[in-house]
Amino acid sequence: SNMASGDAIIIREYVKIKEGGDYKLYESATYSGLQEKPILHIVKLPAKYGVKITLQQTSGIYKTFNYLFFEEVIPPNA
Length: 78
Fold this sequence. Notes:
Largest sheet: 3 strands, antiparallel
Strand order of the largest sheet: 2-1-3
């Protein structure tokens, strides 16, 4: 909801697929200007070893972006 005309951001999603491994880029999306929907909802794939999401502002007046993450823990015998 903070985006305005002239702003652009890139959201990158990374997944770690083995213990001690590196994060690998899973998906990347670019958003520009005022957004019709004020909130971005990202649904993640199950990732046993880790997920990383980055936001890079590439143009416009620098601003902060609020975020909220939820973690779902799946029982080992599920």
